[in-house]
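yo, tRNA (adenine(58)-N(1))-methyltransferase is done. seq:
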Amino acid sequence: MLAVPTEQRSEKSRVICEGDVVVVYERHDRMKAVTVAKNGELQNRFGVFPHNEWMGKEFGCQVKGRNGAGFVYLLAPTPELWTLALPHRTQILYIADISFVVSFLELRPGSVVLESGTGSGSLTHSLARAVAPTGHVHTFDFHEQRANAAREDFARNGVSGVVTVKVRDIQGEGFPEELAGCVDGVFLDLPQPWLAIPSVVRSLRPDGLVCSFSPCIEQVQRTCEVLSKHQFADIRTFEVLLRSYEVRHENLSTSFECSEQTFSKEATKSPPHKRQRGEVDEKGGPESEGHAEDPNGGSKTAAGSIVKQSRPVIARPYPETKGHTGYLTFARQATCM
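structure:
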């Protein structure tokens, strides 16, 4: 996914060149794909970033804004990062579903894959990497403008050598006849995938696999019925749910420690009584065995030594977890002897 071929670059370093696509990383949920141009610049909330200063730097480096207000990371584009940074022309598949598709279609270098429809090209980039360098991805979309935009993305990201984009209504016309019997895997993202199953049967090699992505269970039921009628075996449907965790440092002087301190104070407290003259109040008296606050965030004992409070790393699930995206139905073309 680089403008300058990998073989023309140094083996020990991958530097940014003019024309490269760079994924500008601000945080895990805020990225942007930028094509490096001479005298170009990027402006965001962290400042102004001239492209000329990027050229010659290695991918993965940190660069600061011209005004020094902040910094970003310049990452080499990968299918995973492209999925998070690409311009959305349609709803897309994300990493959880994509990894499942690539794995269960049993894709490897040299495989031939059919995809319908192309959409924004999120899945296509991962398919291309899986089958490269000797395989090929044939992707189809009925919308000509979308297909042209996807073709430009594939050329810009350097995967056009293993991806062919065509405008075709797969539900109505089926896959091209020239691909009959030479396909290892088929992926369908269609409103009525069952209409394309007869064409899938003609295209797949013996023991080939098909995957259909559908958001509604009614689509899944009808697709499974048609797959069964065409003698497909090992028909299975999955729903992939991803739960993300946030990892951060956090002070734990709460809950258990607080309750333990409260219990110890309550246990040693004297019973209620009228204070006598000269008696020192527990709250106002000197802390002979306690800890005094230290301005650096720690605590100071009576002996004068400073005890630093530890900040352990906490992992907890995000309060908002992505739910249902769609159902993935897989089936294997069986051969009758």
